[in-house]
Amino acid sequence: MEITLGQYDDIQQYLDGKMEPEQAASFLQELRANKDLTEAFEFEKSVRENAQGIRQAREILAVTQALTQNAADDPAADTDVRNLIQQSGREWSQTRTTPPLPQASAPPMTATAKVIPFRWTKMAIAASLLIATGSIVFLYIYKNRIEQPAALFAEYFSKDPVPEGDHPMLAQALTDYTHNNYTTLKRYDLDNLPTLKGGGEDQRQKILELGYYYKGIAFLASGEADSATPAFQWVIDHAVTDSLVWKAQWYEALAELKSSNIPAAISMLRPVSSNPKAGTYREQAIALLNKLSKETH
Predict the structure, then answer these.
(1) Does residue 237 surpass a pLDDT of 70?
(2) Least confident span in 111-115, 186-190, 207-211, 244-248
(3) Residue 168 falls inside a structural domain
(4) Which of 89, 119, 145 is the last residue of a domain?
(5) Same domain, yes or no, for 137 and 158?
(6) At what angle do helices 121-132 and 35-72 cross, to 10 degrees?
(7) Three-state SS for 280?
(8) Which of 60, 65, 166, 290 is 20 to 30 A removed from 110 (C-alpha atoms)?
(9) For residues 173 and 211, what is the distance between their CA atoms, to the nearest angstrom?
(10) Does the pLDDT of residue 193 top 80, yes or no?
(11) 228, 193 contact by CB (below 8 A)
C-alpha cells in the first residue's frame, strides 16, 4: 500500500512539531504498523537532515574562503593562518573535558570556546570549530578549491517536473513522485508492462520512456545512484523522444557523480554540453564540466 497525500501531510506536520499530543500518538501508532509510511517518513527526515548538512557545508566554505582571502592580502598571513588554525584547534580540544552530549541537548559550542588574543581572533574561532568536529579541509593559499562529488551533486541535482497531460498507467506513480513519494515508481515493473488495449506499440513506448526516466530520478532523489543508472541508460538506448535522451544523459552524469565516478560523469556530460537543443541543461553541463576538469588536473 502506498501512502496518501493526507499521510504525507501528517509526516510534514509531525516533523514540523505542529501535531497535538493525541494526534502525534495516533500518527506514531500508524507509523509502526505501516511499512510504506515508515519508509516515506524516514526518507523525508533524511532529506531534511541532508539539507541542513548542505547549509553547514556552505557556511564552512564561506569561512575557509574568508581565511584564504585575508591571508592573500597579507604576505605573512599564510604561515600565521596555518599556525593559528593548529593552535586554536589544540586549545579548543583542551577546553572540552567531558564527552559531548547528544545533539538534541548539547549546549552551543561557543559557550566552551576560549578567546584567543590574536589579530585573527574571529577567524580562529571559526576554524577551531571546524577542526574540533573533524570536518575542515585545509585550503592552501593560491590554489583552486576542489569540490567534493557529494557537494557538486547537491548543488546541481533537482528533479524534473512531470509534464502536463494524461499519463496512462503512470498517473498514480507520477502523482506520488510530484509529492516526493518515490516508492511507487521505484517498485513499478516496467519490464513486464502490458500493451494497452487499442493503444498500440507507440503508446507503450511513450509509457516506457517516461516510466524509466522518472524511475531513474526517483532512485536518484532517494540517494540510490547505482539503481538510477540502469533506468537512465534504458532511456538513452531506447527512447525515441530526443529531449528525454539528453535529459537522461544529464541525470546519469549526476548519478555517476554521486557515486564519485568522475570519468564516467565527464563522459556523460560531454554530449549534453555540445547539444544546442539542451537549453539550460547544456549550460549546467558546461559549468559542471569546468568544475570537474579543475578537479582532475
Answers:
(1) yes
(2) 111-115
(3) yes
(4) 145
(5) no
(6) 140
(7) helix
(8) 65
(9) 9
(10) no
(11) no
Q: Mapping DSSP to helix (H, G, I), strand (E, B) and coil, where does residue 296 land?
A: coil
> Which domain does 140 fall in, by range?
51-145
Give the other-Cβ count within 10 Å of 130's Cβ.
20
State whether 179 and 276 are in the same domain: yes
Inside any domain, residue 24: no
Q: Same domain, yes or no, for 182 and 287?
A: yes
Q: Are residues 140 and 204 both part of a single domain? A: no
Residues 6+ apart with CB under 8 A from 75: none
Torsion of CA 122, 126, 129, 130, to 10 degrees: -150
Residues 180 and 284 grouped into a single domain:
yes
Between CA 29 and CA 271 the distance in angstroms is 50
CB 258 within 8 A of CB 149: yes
Tell me 139's DSSP state: P
Q: What size, in residues, is the chain?
A: 297
For residue 64, being part of any structural domain is answered with yes
Which helix (DSSP H) or strand (DSSP E) does residue 226 occupy?
helix 225-238
Tell whether 175 and 120 lie within a shared domain. no
Ramachandran category for residue 140: left, alpha or beta (phi over 0 → left; psi -120 to 50 → alpha): beta
pLDDT at site 174: 95
pTM to 2 decimal places: 0.52
Q: Are residues 202 and 282 in the same domain?
A: yes
CA torsion, ordered 221, 226, 230, 236, to nearest 10 deg: 70
Residue 80 in grid coordinates: 600565521
pLDDT (tens digit, 9 = 90+) per residue, 101-121? 344 443 444 444 333 343 444
**Residue 40 maps to a domain:** no
Q: Look at the chain and report how many structural domains it folds into.
A: 2
How far, in Å, CA of 286 to CA of 98, rounded? 49
